Structures are given as C-alpha cells and as structure tokens.
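Re: weekly structure request thread

Next one in the queue (402 aa):
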Amino acid sequence: MSNPTDGVTHFNQPLLKTPFHNRARALSQNDSFVAWAGYTTVDVFTSPEQEYFAVRNTTGVYDLTPMIKYRITGKGALRFLNHLVTRDVSKLKVNRVIYTVWCNDDGHILDDGTLFRLGEDEYWLCCAERQYDWLLDSAIGFDVAVEEVTEQVAALAVQGPTSCWTLKQLGMSGIENLKPFEVGRFQVEGVDVMASRTGFTGDLGYEIWMPPEKAEFIWDRLMEAGRTRLIRPIGSQALNAVRIEAGFLMPHFDFVSAESTIRLGRDRSPLELGLDWLVDFKKGHFNGRRALVAEQKRGVTRKLVGLDIDGNKPAHSALLYTDKSGQTEVGFVTSAMWSPTCKRNIALAMVNAPFFSVGSEVWAEIYLNRELLWERRMVKATVVEKPFFAPERRRLTPPADR
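Done, posted below.
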C-alpha cells in the first residue's frame, strides 16, 4: 500500500498523513508528532502554553481528520442506533448533533462520540477508535448500511472566542446563527463545507468538514482569515489541557474501552463515569440496558469526579487516600493540570464511595522530580462540580464579535 502524499511505501512509513500534514509540518517548530488512529498528528507546534492560550484568547485550529467517522444509512438506521447507543436517538432532529456512549452487554463503555443526523435516514457517528466490527455485529437484523468514511472527510476544529469571527471572515456568512450542537452547510469560494457547533474545548467553537482534496485550500484561507486575530494551530497537548478544564473525558486517560481491557474490573460503566445523564432508560431496550438498570438500583461503588487540589503542582497519576497518613487508598487521578484560566489545581479522578460526593475531602500523593530526585507530597483535595471552566460565550447565539 502506498502513501499518496509522498510515495513512501506503507511498510516503511506505516502512519498515514492527513490532508493537512504538509501545512502542519511546515508550522511545526518542535518536530513533535504522535500517532492517532493510524495517522501521524502534531503533539506540539511551538509550546503547549502558547497553543493553550490561543484557544482561550483567540482561535486554535486542530486537525480532526483522524477521528473515526462512520456513515450509517437506511430505513432501519434510527432503530439500529437506538439499539446501539444509550441516548434516545428518536429525539435527534435533522442537522443536529448529540454526544453519546455505547456499551457491551455488561453495561461497560466501548466508546463515546458524537452522533450527527444529516438526513431523515442518514447519520454520522464519530469516535476516537475504530468500532467497525462492533457496529456490523450490532447491525444484524436491521435494514441499515454502515460505512467507514474517515479518509473521505477532512476536518478541522476551530475553537476559541474569535472562532466565529474568523469563520465569517472566511466567507461562512450565517455561521453566527448556528446554535450549540447544530449543523450548517456553507460555501467557501465554491468549496462545500459543513460546519457543526461542536468541539472538545468547552469554549466557543466549531468543527468544519470538507473534501480532502480541498483541505489545503481551506487551511490557507482560514489562516489568512484569522491572521489579524492571531489564529494558531494547536497540537494534542494543548487540546488535552482545555478538555480537562471542560471536564471532558479522554479514552485511555479517563477510561479504557471494554473491548481493550484485559484485567477484570478495569472497564467502566457510564454511571461510574458520571455520564448517567446520557442513559435513557425509558426508550426501550439497548445494548447493556439490563446491566445498567441493575447497577442503578444497587448504586455505584466508584465514580469519576472533579477535584480541586491544594497547591499548584499537578497531581498526575496520583493515588488518593482517606487522610494524610496515606494508609487507606480510595481512588486515583486520571487527568490533572494547573489551570491558567481558572487559577486552580484541578483533576479528574476515580473515587470510591462514599468519598465521591461533592464536598468530600481526600488526600493526593504527588511526586515531584527535583533535579533527578523525587519529592513526595501529601496534599488535600476536595471533590467539586464539573466543568471547571464554562464561559457564557460557548452557548451564546450569536456569539459576540471579538
């Protein structure tokens, strides 16, 4: 298999390149790339801090192309999806998007993602990992077609307080009228572009979807449109920081797909992850429903929560204890950061009952590397509500011009 971007064989260069790769490579000052879903993507362009502040103060642009995309069509598409995911898809209108999860028969999460309804019988399901086998198995008996279209669609996440203004300068007139989780269609100098008011930053933002052959053209026009407002491409590290502030979950950080776990007790249910609001028990049967009903009745024994931690040293992978002595373990941190915007030391953590209630106090064991020596600190942490950062502009329609 050849890579069409540079002629290098797939054997020697196993990671695919997105349609934006050449533009991203030219702007990368650190030569820092990571693999995502079989593609090579930028981890850091300049510094995580500069890219973080681009999202919070101007506009950050993230290459979303590697996100796995499935096109689901047919007269039985709605029934199939209602059987597959935990939310009631019948409530999803055309040109709208919802966030959802899907589970195995034990009620444990296989993946999460966004579900687009693009027509009466046409949907897109977007997720971080490939789920084709599970989708095909789940589709048995339904009048539905499932097709992976990842390589057929190039995508950019355009996020930040000036994102709407920038897209209007790009020529996407009317995008300011898109409501959160709404889809619109636009033309940029003759190129058809679909936009959704969605994102992984918890800020004002959009995701734009386009033909791969027009990707570089749209990139160039977008960067020129936002030049005076200091638009900047961002990598995975900056995206990870802003999604923690938003309280969003990341696969392999905050949970592992039940398809991937090899040790008992490592998979998670949506109720344990604080996603019970995504589970609609009234809609009828869906994968994992019986197990989730039983879990709801007996109550969860652990839960993913937000933590406000004393001090300013991030509690990366910290163990949590009932008191400062560190004798009785009650959980662990899954994601952590010092938030420059919130001016708080924050984390997401899996905490055992009864310590996951808001207001509960636990102690975090933090290790710091000081000139090749490790220091151990025990600091107090308080369970708090999520998200940590939720600006009004993320929902304001139309957004203010900045």
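DSSP finds eight helices and 20 strands in the chain. The chain has a mean pLDDT of 95.
Next request, please.
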